Amino acid sequence: MNGAARKPSSPLGLHRVVEPAGVLPQAARRLDPDAPLHEDEVRVDVEHLNLDAASYRQLHEAHGGDGEAVREAVCRIVRERGKMHNPVTGSGGMLIGTVAETGPRSPLGLKPGDRVASLVSLTLTPLTLTDGLRDWDGLSERAPARGHAVLFGRSIAAALPADLPDELSLAVLDVCGAPALTARTVADHAARTGVPPTVAVLGAAGKSGSLALAAARRAGARRLVGVVPDAAEEAALTRSRLPDTVVRADARDAVALAERLADCGGPVDITVVCTDVPGCEHAAILATRDGGTVIFFSLATSFPAAALGAEGLRADVTMLIGNGYQPGHAQQALDLVRTDPGVRGLFDRRLRREDTSEGTSAVSRSAEHRSAVPPAPAPLDSVAHRPAAPTGKLGLDPQLVARARELAVRAGRPVVDIARSHTTVAVERAALRLAGLSGADAEGIPWVNRLVDAVRDQVGLEHGVALPVWHALRTGAGRDLTDLAARATARDVSFRLPEGAEATAAVRTARRAMAGGLGVIDGRRRERERLVSQGGGARGPLVYLIVATGDIHEDIRQAAAAARGGADVIAVIRSTGQSLLDYVPHGATREGYAGTYATQENFRLMRAALDEVSAELGRYVRLTNYASGLCMPEIAVLAGFERLDMMLNDSMYGILFRDINPVRTFVDQRFSRQLHARAGIVINTGEDNYLTTADAVQAAHTVTASQLLNEYFGKEAGLSDAQLGLGHAFEIDPDLPDSFRMELSHALLARELFPDAPLKWMPPTRHMTGDVFRGYLLNGFFNLAGALTRQDILLVGMMTEAVVTPFLSDRDLALQNVRYVREAAGALEEDFRPAPGGMISRRADHVLHEAVDLLERICDRGLLDAIAAGTFGGMRRPVDGGRGRDGVAERAPGYRNPAIELLEKPADFDREREGEDQP
């Protein structure tokens, strides 16, 4: 390309155009990136390319998700065109790099050594690649690269800020035109009409969408609607609190979106399109009232479709093409991500998801979100290197955070290995429940217990129950599972372990049966998603209230009253001691001590009652119970069958406070969490309980360490961030100086370590003295701490704690306390920023360092030995002690549990089914 005669320099870059002559660089088919530098140009050594979403999506789909083919396609485009200009989408992206040379008359104000991001498209930036993109796998929009680019006199570039990670800065600057134009359009509308506008953003949880929402709010918009395509983005956007209303809808379905908007206020004044999929033009137009404005920021937009669609709809709307440049746009966008926690949280979520994709592209991840069935769990170590970028309020050291997570993985991995190599009676019973075995005999003993006990007595559990049970069914030992269980109880069945073709046939038959149970759970998950969508997302924390009368019918009356009083989550406390029962009671129950038995029928009755009150209130009321104790996996199955929404699920609670054998409960916990992941259930962990037996100041680091371990165990089992309801509590002695500041520090530390987790914030119990006035004040401070640190699940504190079981009037007063603080505080979290280096920040740093030190010691000695030494909650629980140890079996070679196989390897199941015998 550099054989042509040297052309005079043009600030527009005309001298770099090779063909066709007379066009600007963006319209050119080919640019010359290799000619000597002109006096007003800047040469940048490239470090990363960031392909725009529309261009990357098109390349990914065109090449069937083949990363190597995508990489070669990008190299070919750059090689042939002298720039990154996708010929299909007409888009490119941007780059970051280091200034290598500047011409003496460059007006850009850059100097060699500056690290910069280009703020003009790669479609008009001369570019040469020298490394063939060898370090890029082609499976994400960010591509490590080596080469050089040329900036013209009228190009735009920004120095990378020192206070933000490069990948975050790149992501923000890539879309910084969106918030600037959105803010200007909002301000213009208000100036023209005298009324602040209503604004809807399509693709609101994405990069440009979240910035547009925040910019619209700051520019004075009076009502914000965020439109997202799936449940995951709905949950993330709701937690961000950026819009007033979150709508889940397909932005390509114009009529459906218009109907959803009609349900929440009707068409808006300004619609901002930030999606990366084509076909959203008509929906955007129909969403906008006459006289309003549509801003198209998506490069997937068809402008003929927009123009003709507006004409065909007789829509009197102004349509703007999103301009990637506005004066001051880069600084404005960076300031938004620095100062708005909601925006920062969405960007951090996106970057973490890309960092942990493990070969899953942005496009395929988007498809997974739209799937009714969640993808298979991530590989064992997929969260091993997942450093969370801090929100900045505490100034946490990212390297220390990364170190903490790495240690949690190292400490947890041996326990996962134990869980993978052992089974329990509860795991095998849960598999039978998935296959359809339910009910109990005349003595009230569940059939699953009878059948598993019979198998264990005859052939042991080392190979699982699927092989002997379904071999017996195939050879005529029983008409169905219930009949087989009855015959086995009467000792009329001889079980044996089949081999060869007989074993293969038994497993296939078992898989079909267990797949049916998982299908029921999948259907209940879809049902929940539909009901939540219809009821709209709860704004602010979910208010969590307990009922515990022992009588399920009385529980239902109290739960309905609590929901009408403002509760979002109803938790039915289990009868004391049920966690130590090695069976699940059957049927509805009307007696229990300090709680109500967890049974499938009780789940069904309460779920039906809450569905009725949800329809009455126009919002979805969630139901919580306990998947813990000796029957943890079985209760997880029943919760999935009956559409429970949250489950307390933490083996450490059973180990420490119920003296259940550690191996037994860690094995049970892994399978139960796999089931919860499939069911879309949010787990609640029990770290808050540590502080009821240990000092909340001295033991604060044990809570943090346990949260990190629970994050690893949960993610390894397939749970998403949105399903990790990590627990912590307001339990510092209020008589200590600065007790509230320490509570804020601990709560904010949890929030910043786990920005996408729905944290469960527990009220004071240990230091409630019976003084109801003091207790009511303490609960007010607890509620305020939750508001200041964005806790997601807020358990309602009772001023009569430690005095009596709460009366309905006590609950009414407690809910009033929550409502007052929540409404009065509003978005106070946005204004709460602890002083850098102040007591709150120092305390958080101290606790995190102590947690890291503890995790290092646990890695040295082993988690099970640490539990035996009383590390958590001051309780010593040896690995070979505790209840339920006799229900554990080490898996033998050839162990089969089709339920686990279906949850972990659905693709293998599909392949194995090819050609199988039909029943």
Strand-helix topology:
Blueprint: E1 17-19, E2 30-31, E3 42-51, H1 53-62, H2 67-81, E4 93-102, E5 115-118, E6 127-129, E7 142-151, E8 157-159, H3 166-173, H4 177-193, E9 198-202, H5 207-218, E10 223-228, H6 231-240, E11 245-248, H7 254-262, E12 268-273, H8 281-286, E13 288-296, H9 303-312, E14 318-321, H10 329-339, H11 341-355, H12 362-370, H13 398-420, E15 422-424, H14 425-434, H15 447-459, H16 466-474, H17 481-489, H18 500-535, E16 542-547, H19 552-564, E17 569-572, H20 600-617, E18 622-626, H21 632-641, E19 646-648, H22 651-658, H23 662-679, E20 682-684, H24 690-693, H25 700-716, E21 724-725, E22 727-729, H26 739-753, E23 760-762, H27 772-788, E24 793-795, H28 808-825, H29 839-861, H30 863-868, E25 888-890, H31 898-904, H32 906-913
Parallel strand pairs: 9-10, 9-12, 10-11, 12-13, 13-14, 16-17, 16-24, 17-18, 18-19, 19-20, 20-21, 22-23, 23-24
Antiparallel strand pairs: 1-2, 3-4, 3-7, 4-5, 5-8, 6-7, 15-25
Helix pairs in contact: 4-5, 5-11, 6-11, 10-11, 13-23, 13-25, 13-29, 14-15, 14-18, 14-21, 15-17, 16-18, 19-20, 21-23, 22-23, 25-29, 26-27, 26-29, 27-28, 31-32
